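Progress against Task 2.4 (sequence-to-structure conversion) is shown through the following example record, which the project officer requested during the mid-term review.
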Amino acid sequence: MAQTMDADQKQQLADWNKRCGKLWLKYFAMVLPPLVLLLFPFIQVLYYFLDVTRPLISRELAYGQPAYHDYQAAKDQPLIILAIFLVLIAAVFYLSNRWYKKAIRVLGPPPVGNTSRWNRLVLGKSQDI
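Structure tokens generated for the chain above:
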């Protein structure tokens, strides 16, 4: 069942798509900078953690060797820092996703019906477009 649209409806739909596109740009501007700023130190601490735990896992250092206790003590702090970074990254995603859903609900459904590529994002619907 094909619906014919007049020029006014097409213009309204184009304006709505433009507003959705701007909303997506704002969303990515909110997500990407904090994610990049958190991801670089996360990766550095992860590499440090792997360097510290590699001799313990590969059994190069066994209990009773001189450096064993130093390596055991050194692995706890980066593990805590990794957990903190992981929580911060999850918080960035959670808060930005929550903001985006509120903003898209304020924007409302497309003016002409289900003819928009953004429709599956509005009101949490997962329809094939």
